[in-house]
Write a structure and sequence with these properties.
Distance between the termini: 30 Å
Radius of gyration: 33 Å
Low-confidence stretches: 358-372
Number of helices: 40
Largest sheet: 4 strands, mixed
Structural class: alpha+beta
Helix content: 40-55%
Shape: globular
Strand order of the largest sheet: 3-2-1-4
Mean pLDDT: 87
Strand content: 5-15%
């Protein structure tokens, strides 16, 4: 990290006296030529502004603080605006004997009034008049505004009398907040002083309660717009939860309740702990540094710390790789820890400021009851009481028994009470009381497990514990993942936030709140014998990220340590550790392997070993995927999970000593026999189709779907040789496209290319070939937004079906390559990988290709396989944000696996070349001035 620079004096950056002299010289040299005079003045001001910003930028990159940088930029802007005002009123519209009506004060308001400014932020100006607008004042204001716009400023401005300011401030909290921070830049001093005096006496006085209520309500609405979690992995530094605006809200409340006193003076009051003040200043400085770097890096008022900017800002702030932790992840963890501190500080400071003047109503933030005495109601639990509908504690209760730190949250959960800010503050300040002895205390373990596995709302309670720092202190394994982020586009939240959301999903499934989204998980939840193990595994499932030996192994090791400390019996410890170590197995088998292949299910059943583990693993997997981010879970993944679960359950029903693959074949044979009988009864003409299809086909589709396929295959045979139809499947969040045609080499390639040419993305595919040599390919496709393809345009799907029918007959396919705007994804450096596995299937070689996702990647990989003389018998498409993982089951022209090392190596080389095309495209699309970082492969 750069060495911290000492603050510099403003006159060393912009000399106000010299600047005004240069402007006077420019005016005198161009007397009589207003246009030349104006141009010369703007050139002088632009040079001063540019110099000031560049010095601020250089100092920031060499270790200057964020607050210092923001104040320096504000000071430079003050000099430029003040010098422009003097130039305007002296050389352009000079009033030699100004009348009372020609008095004018220029004030900075809003954030600019606070004296801090980001490099490309708006500036808000208030022109204060004694009474109605005069021609002179109008001319001065107009000239200045046009000049400021020409200087590149985005100016928010108003011209008002003092009376108008007071009236509007009473009516509008936005205007009131703006004037609260008003600061005179230049002009009539008495006018500015009178405005401040009247504003404090006629607007602020006696209205502290309503102002605090309005500001906190405004904060919550802003959080809802920006994303309610402060742990979104692309945070808004200014408006997001835990960002600068939250700290500014505290500034406003402090200034309003202590008018005339600086924030520094307010924070010196006895009510504020020195550690909290120090954390406040550090957070403010860090966030300002990030914001200024964002503006300088983009050359615009960019407030969102998006993926493409994160590596660059990390570099500019001096972060480097450390071991397995990349610079960008170290920087972002620091950001999220700061955001967490801001959340805690907001609670503490707001509570302390309110305590002087107003009483906060129950549930937190919207109702204030000034002057009302709130009753204190003791609870049955010693040392705890309810006050104003919130849970509070007696002094020194945590020192008397540190386990009370956990009891506080259990009682709040049981009684559905919000925590009183004083209780939250006391808990935050007392976390050092949680020692190794407390972590091994059986009473503490009982309280903790009550919250986690038997609580009314475990996600909310654990989140509150995390915010207070208690959860990570009591469970150090969890503490290591607090604020940890993974640099990829797959995860929407930090690791701890994702984990707590996953715990909440399990609670929702257990309470029966998600039967439509997760029917199987909801149905088997009552059958799970050990919910405590399930919740513990969910809470600990990602604790191995960044650990030695890989995520799964390190996670199992951490889970054992945590469970042993909690005093659990050995069988439960081993079950939790097993679930953590294998929490990715079910999604891998369901999404990357052919579930109709007996070897797939046999291998999975061999790992799982029991129906109870199967039930636990299903619920764990569903919750894990759903909690990754919005839209990650969908009906297609649900269907794959259900198929794998049902097939594995059938294996277990076959008996412990039975051969798993044989048990699955019997299951498929029985299911196929029943399906063929039903098919023949419902439509005799479809019987040949049923007889020609393999047994595994019938476990993948319903009777109605099989009937549709039979009719389509008959139409293809009796007609032009191919047939296709498409329809939206809302239950799968995709559109289903079914193609029946005579099987031939490159059929799958042509179909995939036709789908790409239509602008659709393939999220899943099923490939079957009848004994009569007829192919049935079923594709599940989405549009670029992740919605079912053609859902909003009824003309699109018929066109797609027609294009696939033509492609199936061998007609030329339009192979127009869509250029992809990688945008934020260009920041990720992705290493392509190819793996060949001859053990995963009895009949085929499984080829797994992983690399940067792009339109046409599936078609490109399929073309490479076809060019190598291979036949694709099954294809499985998976994706993790910017990374795609496509798996193919292939055989050679003789129907054999790829066993020759030479052929395998040549295939790997060809597939890597296809994958590297995507990476080369991303490199060319990246902005040359921005840093890149390797994408995390952790899931």
């Amino acid at each position: 990290m750069p060495t911290r620079l000492k603050p510099t004096r403003l006159e060393y950056v912009v000399d106000g006296v010299k600047l005004r002299s240069q402007l006077s010289a420019a005016a005198l040299e161009n007397l009589g030529d207003e246009a030349a005079q104006r141009k010369a003045a703007l050139d002088v001001l632009k040079a001063a502004l540019f110099r000031g910003r560049m010095i601020a930028k250089e100092r920031l990159e060499n270790g200057a603080g964020g607050i210092e940088t923001a104040r320096l930029i504000s000071g430079v802007t003050d000099e430029v605006v003040g010098a422009l005002y003097d130039f305007t009123t002296v050389h352009v519209f000079r009033a030699r004997n100004p009348t009372e009506g020609e008095r004018l004060a220029l004030m900075a308001v809003g954030g600019y009034g606070r004296g801090t400014l980001a490099p490309y932020s708006d500036i808000d100006l208030l022109f204060v008049r004694p009474y109605k607008q005069t021609a002179h004042a109008e001319s001065v204001i107009e000239y200045m505004l046009y000049a400021l716009w020409d200087l590149g400023f985005k100016v928010g401005h108003a011209s008002r009398t003092i009376e108008e300011c007071v009236k509007l401030a009473r009516e509008d909290f936005t205007i009131r907040t703006s004037i609260l921070e008003a600061r005179r830049l230049t002009g009539d001093e008495k006018l500015a002083e009178e405005l401040v005096k009247r504003f404090r006496g006629e607007v602020v006085k006696g209205t502290g309660a309503e102002f605090v209520a309005a500001k906190l309500k405004e904060r919550d609405e802003r959080h809802a717009r920006a994303g309610a979690s402060r742990y979104m992995v692309e945070p808004n530094v200014k408006e997001g939860k835990g960002g600068l605006r939250d700290l500014n809200t505290l500034f406003w409340i402090a200034q309003y309740l202590h008018p005339g006193e600086s924030l520094e003076r307010v924070m010196q009051l006895e009510m504020f702990d020195r550690r909290e003040v120090r954390a406040f200043i550090l957070a403010f400085d860090f966030l300002w540094a990030v914001r200024c770097h964002l503006h300088f890096a983009t050359g615009r008022p960019e407030e969102r710390l998006s993926f493409d900017l994160q590596p660059e800002i990390a570099r500019r702030m001096g972060y480097g790789d450390r071991g397995d932790a990349p610079a960008v992840e170290r920087f972002m963890r620091r950001y999220f820890l700061i955001a967490k501190d801001v959340g805690a500080l907001t609670r503490v400071f707001a509570a302390k400021l309110e305590a002087e003047r107003v009483k906060l109503a129950p549930k937190g933030i919207s109702r204030f009851l000034p002057g009302r005495k709130v009753k204190r109601k003791p609870l049955a639990e010693p040392g705890f009481h309810e006050i104003g509908g919130r849970l509070d504690v007696d002094p020194d209760i945590f020192q008397a028994d540190p386990v009370n730190l956990l009891r506080l949250f259990r009682i709040a959960d049981e009684r559905n009470l919000d925590l009183h800010p004083d209780a939250f503050t006391a808990a935050s300040r007392s976390i050092n009381l949680v020692t190794s002895a407390v972590r091994r205390d059986r009473h503490a373990a009982k309280v903790f497990l009550d919250i986690l596995a038997r609580g009314r709302d475990p996600r909310t309670t654990l989140t509150l514990m995390n915010e207070a720092g208690v959860l990570g202190r009591y469970l150090p394994e969890f503490g290591r993942i607090v604020a940890q982020m993974q640099f990829n586009m797959y995860h929407s939240y930090t690791v701890d936030e994702h984990t707590l959301r996953a715990v909440g999903v399990i609670a929702d499934i257990g309470a029966g709140r998600l039967p439509d989204d997760h029917p199987l998980a909801t149905g088997i939840m009552p059958l799970i014998a050990d919910r405590e193990a399930l919740y513990l595994a969910m809470l600990l499932h990602d604790t191995g990220k960044g650990g030695a030996g890989g995520q799964e192994v390190a996670g199992a090791r951490a889970a054992r340590q945590a469970c042993e400390r909690l005093g659990l019996e050995r069988s439960k410890i081993e079950l939790v550790a097993w679930l953590v170590e294998h929490h990715l197995v079910m999604s891998d088998f369901a999404q990357k392997r052919d579930v109709s292949d007996p070897r797939t299910v046999a291998d999975f059943a061999r790992i799982v070993q029991s129906p109870e583990r199967l039930r636990l693993l299903l619920v764990l997997t569903v919750a894990d995927i759903r909690a990754v981010g919005p839209g990650v879970w969908n009906g297609w993944k649900g269907q794959l999970m259900r198929e794998l679960y049902n097939a594995t359950e059938a294996v277990f029903r076959g008996g412990r000593g039975s051969d798993a693959a044989a048990a699955l074949r019997r299951y498929q044979e029985n299911a196929a026999y029943d399906a063929r009988v039903r098919l023949a009864k419902s439509e005799p003409a479809a019987e040949p189709w049923g007889d020609a299809m393999e047994d595994a086909y019938f476990t993948a589709f319903t009777d109605e779907e099989v009937l549709t396929h039979a009719r389509l295959a008959r139409a293809a045979s009796e007609g032009p040789g191919s047939a296709a139809e498409a329809h939206v499947r809302r239950d799968l969040n995709a559109s289903e496209v079914i193609v029946a045609a005579a099987d031939r080499p490159r059929l799958f390639v042509d179909l995939a290319e036709a789908i790409t040419g239509a602008g659709a993305n393939v999220m899943g595919a099923r490939v079957f070939t009848s004994r009569a040599g007829q192919a049935l390919d079923v594709f599940y496709v989405q549009d670029v937004t992740g919605a079912p393809f053609g859902a909003n345009d009824e003309r699109v799907l018929p066109r797609l079906a027609n294009a696939l029918a033509c492609a199936a007959r061998g007609e030329p396919v339009t192979r127009e390559r869509r250029r992809q705007d990688l945008g934020r994804a260009a920041a990720f450096a992705i290493t392509p990988a190819v793996m060949l596995d001859n053990e995963a299937s009895e009949t085929s070689t499984v080829v797994e290709a992983s690399g940067r996702d792009r339109p046409g990647l599936l078609a490109g990989l399929a073309r490479t396989l076809s060019d190598a003389g291979l036949l694709i018998t099954s294809a499985h498409i998976d994706g993790y944000g910017e990374r795609a993982v496509d798996c193919f089951y292939v055989v050679d022209a003789k129907g054999q696996k790829i066993t020759e090392a030479r052929k395998g190596n040549a295939l790997k080389t060809a597939l890597l070349a296809t994958l590297n095309d995507s990476e080369a495209e991303s490199t060319s699309a990246r902005r040359a001035n921005l840093q890149r970082a390797r994408a995390s492969v952790a899931r």
